[in-house]
Write a structure and sequence with these properties.
heterotrimer, A mainly alpha, B alpha/beta, C mainly alpha, B: alpha/beta, Rossmann fold, 2 domains, six-stranded mixed β-sheet, 24 strands, C: mainly alpha
Chain lengths: 349, 496, 345
């Protein structure tokens, strides 16, 4: 057999191009596939749910899971490398609580939940973010250093962080004696719109994450590790250090979310963000991020979030009780996994 | 019971892989209750033949008869059921269970699910005892040495009443003392109604253990003879390598260049006190057969595995970390391209620049145009046959995949390249292209270390050849001065 | 450990290995003992030893064992599954779902003798569903069981009519008082049937793990799946069976919980999977499978029960989650130190 030496030429005619779909990478294909699913679901929802198609509702669909999307950035990167982070929910709660507590002034009230060190808001935010990254550091230590499976470690840190939040708030919340500036960033709307600043932050973070993912060396490393960790190591990638930094990043993002939510509700609540860790995982899976490695994008995760939004909003619109959420999320995730697998199988034959 | 003399009869066996004929019309018989040795160089077709017997591969043409009946197992489990057990290098024991539990795995006697200690089990344990009394049946297998684990597997095959036990390079991973014990056991198997097919390149073992020896070369059957009729190692070696024509070695201008790489007393679990030097622009070869320690040496220098000893490159001591070694100017083309060298789900463009991303990025941001350009350049330079840089490397042929790995390492701008089995499994055309690339790099001043088990490759390319056997550097030859392939084979098969 | 004079290196290593093995075998009993001692002396200033209010008073011990019935029932099967190298995060929700269904049946007039086996059968079905997702459809166990966690939990919540928090007595339909009997009525030494069922399950699973094919094959599949398959052991079949077993035990646990609380609470099993993981880690089961011990996991479960009930007397309730998280991380560290084989060069 002679090696076929087709030299590359610039002209389009010399390439045997199949359909457009064949030129796409598997990842783009799946993202487009899920956009298609989203379009179909949206159309169906419009038929059955009153007022679903109104622009006001569409804007809601795109923005109401802003907090899951921010968390989803960290979870996406970790999932690509084959790791879980179930601590994000607890981390969000902890951050909000720490921020609130630090900012609480010493009001002299006998209620311990109404007193705090009274630090300036900026310092409170810094302290809260430090806690958030600290949780990420604990994760990194056990997962990278001690090589403990990430699911077990992050379930543990989930309990630790939420538990700490409960301790600081005695199981309730801290919402008194807070400076006015505390509620600013979470309740400011962009001029002329009904969009909160948090949504803008979300969009910025996703954009930055996308650029990082596709356009930087650091982002490329995530994919290399996910595709083949041993080959990555032999190619000079510091695998352990990179995964550790991803856990720190995930912690930081949880921190940002916690601060925004605490500001929005003007309280540090220990039960905040319950279940967010699973929801973040769901939107990643809906968006085609694969745990078997090397595959997935924050853009896909974003599409997954909108998909989830359509499903849950339709349920609410159809006056289903909120108890439907759990079953729906489970079923939708399951169907998405099967559908994606089916689509990819059909593609390679 | 009337059993025929030949437990296995191989008739006109052929195995093709796309364009390569790995087994070419091989026919010979294996007599019952003998130790039948199979020898041949790398690429001779031994492993392919064995894989057909164990059901891991399906034959293209020809027949195999087991006990007179047609034998064509669809998989390893069926092969085992039909009576052919195999002792692989990756041990198939469960470390966390005891010896007795491993022996009876899948063959337990139970009452309502409860494990019973029946006569069958006692019999198995007594087989174990007869083979090796020092292994206690209630020991956890994890506490056993590799040699002992091998013995447990052998006992299991015997207890399962296997007709044939295939042993593939069993002594590669065990010590001298353990080898003697293993031999005693193998010899005893003849009296337990087991025929042993013994594959090894350590020719002394053939003479000590074997009743019959079959030599293969280039996929063909060369000879099958009683060991007693083979005069000595040299005769075997002659049959194994035939007439090796050494063309292509271009003697190069002398003039001692500087030493760039110094390896001093390198040792780890496999290597024993290896020391050598490499000069700039040299192509240095490391030749040895399976288990000699070539890959371990390459990986140790690269920092991929821990070691004792010192490696100095251009005057600086190298730390045992791949990222630091790459930064110092060394790149490795690993032994297994699919699992270690390539990112198979990524495209050609996703693979090529990986080891030197700084070159196509500015302050951390990848320059997409530069990325495309360097990939195109690599594709043209190495003549990688692909319709597009966006093709998934998993879909490329073996030769082209290897070229991608080469391109990746070349892009690292390394001054010293280590190539581990650089042309394994690729066709003749791609092979000679790669040799051309290697020579060109050497002329450009790069130093190259080639680790290979293909003798013609080593002798055609390398200025200096180090011979490895059992983790030790046994001999060093300068090429161009009447290199004697006989002598080389002698050394790498354990001779002195 | 230092080398004794005159001792060879080999002998020293053997002594070190033997010591390590002994520590591995016994540490968990030591830990349990220490914790019991700790809580026994904690409030000695206020209460009489073994008197009312003391950690080891008869009332307290009986209460702890009654509460422990669910985790004791569940942790054995969970251990077997982890030995085979697989995990089930949906056990808590399966337990809640079973509690709800059981309470519904009891309130609907179904006699115990029928409701009990029906719930158990349903538990098997839940486990079979998990097995289907993990073994047949080959979805990663963590993701598959997180999905079923939500489906089971959601289904349990949906069965309970909105407006109510659980299946309990409503106007026109009262929950019969005897629902309590199974988990509270004193049968022997002040302990109820549910406890003895748990003991029975534990004893059965200890025997299964040590003496039957199931236990051996679980270890073989977890230890070296290739070797197991080559020996004719079909991993898909056996692990599927283990998932069914876990589902069954979850149903038994749910029945006990519903009986104890007299209601079918769809959130009653929340967090049980974390308790199981902690018990399994404390008991020395390796993360990757291949080895483990039902007996030691049960001791681990007792430790958890002691810690949670003991802590309740010493610290306010809002410290519970943090304490549990600390125990989990501590168990991880302990497991790492004791179970991992040291690496060689």
């Amino acid at each position: 057999m002679t090696a076929q030496t087709t030299t590359m030429s610039a002209g389009p005619g010399s390439e045997r191009v199949g359909t457009l779909a064949r030129k796409l990478s598997n990842e783009s294909f799946i993202t487009l596939f899920m956009v298609g699913v989203l379009a179909v679901l949206f159309a169906v929802a419009c038929l059955f749910v009153p007022n679903f198609w109104l622009p006001r509702n569409v804007v809601n669909l795109l923005t109401n899971y802003w907090y899951l999307i921010i968390l989803g950035i960290g979870v996406t990167f970790l999932l690509i490398t084959g790791n879980f982070d179930m601590s994000v929910g607890g981390n969000v709660a902890l951050t909000g609580v720490v921020c609130a507590w630090c900012a609480q002034a010493a009001s002299g009230s006998p209620n311990p939940l109404a007193n705090g060190p009274g630090l300036p808001y900026g310092l409170s935010v810094a302290a809260a973010l430090a806690c958030a990254v600290g949780v990420g550091a604990v994760n990194a230590f056990f997962i990278v250093r001690l090589k403990v499976p990430s699911i077990i470690v992050t379930l543990g840190t989930m309990m630790l962080s939420r538990g700490l939040a409960q301790v600081i708030t005695r199981g309730a919340q801290r919402n008194t004696s807070l400076p006015d500036v505390f509620g600013v960033v979470g309740n400011t709307f962009l001029p002329g719109t009904s969009l909160k600043v948090a949504v803008l932050i979300m969009v910025l973070l996703v954009a930055v994450a996308f650029v990082l993912e596709k356009g930087t060396v650091a982002g490329r490393r995530t994919y290399l590790i996910g595709a083949n960790a041993e080959a990555a190591r032999l190619s000079g990638v510091k695998v352990g250090r990179h995964i550790a930094s991803l856990y720190l990043l995930s912690g930081l993002l949880a921190g940002i979310t916690g601060i925004l939510l605490a500001s929005e509700f003007k309280a540090g609540v220990s039960s905040r963000a319950t279940g967010y860790e699973f929801d973040a995982l769901v939107i990643c899976l809906l968006g085609g991020v694969s745990i078997s490695g090397g595959f997935g994008s924050v853009l896909g995760m974003f599409v997954g979030a909108i998909l989830l939004s359509v499903v849950t909003s339709s349920a609410t619109g159809l006056l289903l009780s909120p108890d439907w959420q759990f079953t729906l999320k489970g079923l939708v995730t399951f169907l998405a996994i099967l559908a994606q697998r089916f689509a990819l199988d059909r593609r390679s034959t | 019971m009337d059993r025929i003399d030949n437990v296995l009869e191989i008739r006109g066996l052929v195995k093709d892989f796309s364009s390569v004929r790995a087994v070419n019309d091989v026919s010979f018989d294996i007599r019952r209750n003998t130790v039948h040795c199979l020898v041949g160089e790398n690429g001779a077709g031994k492993s392919t033949l064995i894989k057909i017997l164990t059901g891991a591969l399906q034959r293209t043409a020809g027949r195999v008869l087991l006990n007179g009946k047609d034998y064509a197992p669809r998989g390893p489990r069926e092969a085992k059921q039909k009576g052919i057990s195999t002792l692989f290098q990756e041990l198939n024991v469960v470390d966390q269970l005891t010896v007795a539990e491993n022996l009876t795995l899948g063959m337990e006697d139970t009452t309502l699910g409860f494990l019973r200690r029946t006569d069958k089990i006692n019999r198995m344990v007594s087989v174990m005892n007869s083979l090796e009394p020092s292994i206690r049946p209630h020991q956890r297998v994890s506490t056993l040495s590799v040699a002992q684990k091998q013995i447990v597997e052998i006992a299991k095959a015997v207890a399962a009443e296997a007709d044939v036990l295939i042993m593939d390079e069993p002594t590669a991973a065990i010590s001298e003392g353990e080898i003697a014990r293993l031999f005693a056991i193998v010899k005893a198997l003849r009296h337990k109604n087991v025929t042993v097919i013994y594959i090894s390149h350590r020719l002394d073992e053939i003479f000590e253990l074997g009743d019959v020896v079959t030599v293969m070369r280039d996929g063909r059957h060369i000879a099958t003879r009683p060991v007693a009729e083979v005069k000595d190692r040299s005769e075997l070696i002659r049959m194994m390598i035939g007439k090796t024509v050494f063309e292509g070695y271009e003697a190069r201008e002398s003039g001692k260049k500087d030493v760039v790489l110094e390896v001093k007393n390198l040792a780890n679990h496999k290597l024993k006190d290896v020391s050598f030097e490499v000069r700039q622009g040299e192509i240095v070869g490391f030749y040895g057969l399976v288990g000699a320690g070539k890959t371990e040496l390459a990986r140790a220098i690269y920092g991929a595995d821990p070691y004792r000893g010192e490696v100095t490159f251009r005057g600086k001591k190298l730390p045992p970390r791949p990222d630091k070694v790459i930064a110092a100017g060394i790149a490795l083309v690993p032994e297994e391209r699919r699992s270690q060298g390539l990112f198979t789900i990524l495209t050609v463009r996703g693979n090529v620049p990986v080891m030197n991303m700084a070159k196509i990025s500015r302050r951390g941001f990848i320059d997409a145009a530069a990325e495309r350009r360097v990939t195109l350049e690599a594709v043209e330079r190495l003549r990688i046959a692909t319709s597009s840089t966006e093709k998934e490397t998993a879909k490329l042929s073996g030769g082209n995949q290897q070229k991608v790995v080469f391109a990746k390492c070349l892009f690292a701008d390394a001054d010293l390249l280590m190539l581990d089995e650089p042309t394994r499994g690729i066709d003749v055309g791609a092979k000679s292209e790669i040799y051309g690339i290697i020579r060109k790099l050497s002329r450009e001043g790069k130093s190259i270390l080639v680790f290979s088990s293909e003798l013609p490759e080593i002798v055609n390319l390398c200025d200096t050849v180090h011979l490895l056997y059992d983790g030790e550097l046994k001999a060093t030859l300068e090429n161009g001065r009447g290199v004697d392939s006989q002598r080389i084979m002698h050394v790498v098969t354990g001779g002195l | 450990m230092s080398i004794a004079s005159g001792e060879t290196m080999a002998a020293h290593l053997e002594r070190a290995a033997a010591l390590r093995a002994t520590i591995k075998r016994l540490y968990i009993y030591v830990v349990l003992l220490l914790i019991v001692l700790l809580f026994s002396v904690a409030r000695l200033g206020e209460v009489e030893p073994f008197g009312p209010g003391h950690f080891l008073s008869p009332d307290s011990v009986v209460n702890m064992l009654r509460i422990a019935a669910p985790i004791l029932t569940l942790s054995g099967a969970f251990t077997l599954l982890m030995i085979s190298g697989y995990i089930d995060l949906s056990v808590g929700s399966a337990m809640s779902f079973s509690a709800v269904v059981f309470a519904l049946m009891i309130r609907g007039g179904v006699p115990f003798a029928l409701a009990f086996p029906l719930t158990a059968a349903m538990g098997c079905a839940l486990g079979a569903a998990n097995g289907l997702l993990v073994m047949r459809l080959r979805i990663t166990p963590v993701i598959a069981t997180l999905v079923t966690l939500n489906v089971f939990k959601g289904s349990a919540l949906l069965i309970v009519p909105s407006g109510l928090s659980a299946i309990k007595s409503i106007p026109g339909r009262a929950m019969p008082a005897w629902i309590n009997d199974y988990a509270r009525a004193e049968v022997l030494f002040g302990l109820p049937w549910a406890f003895y069922v748990a003991v029975g399950v534990i004893l059965a699973l200890v025997v299964v793990q040590r003496r039957t094919l199931v236990g051996k094959y679980a270890a073989a599949i977890g230890g070296n799946r290739t070797a197991a398959e080559l020996s004719g052991i079909g991993a898909v079949r056996w692990v599927w069976g283990l998932y069914v077993l876990v589902g069954l035990c979850a149903a038994l646990a749910g029945t006990a919980r519903a009986s104890y609380m007299s209601i079918g609470d769809p959130l009653s099993g929340d967090g049980m999977e974390l308790d199981c993981i902690i018990a399994v880690l404390l008991g020395g089961t390796a993360f990757s499978g291949g080895e483990g011990s039902v007996a030691k996991t049960v001791v681990g479960a007792l430790i958890i029960v002691c810690v949670t009930t003991g802590l309740m007397t010493v610290i306010p309730a809002f410290w519970q989650t943090f304490a549990k998280g600390a125990v989990l991380i501590g168990a991880v560290a302990l497991n790492y130190l004791l179970v991992r084989e040291p690496a060689r060069c």
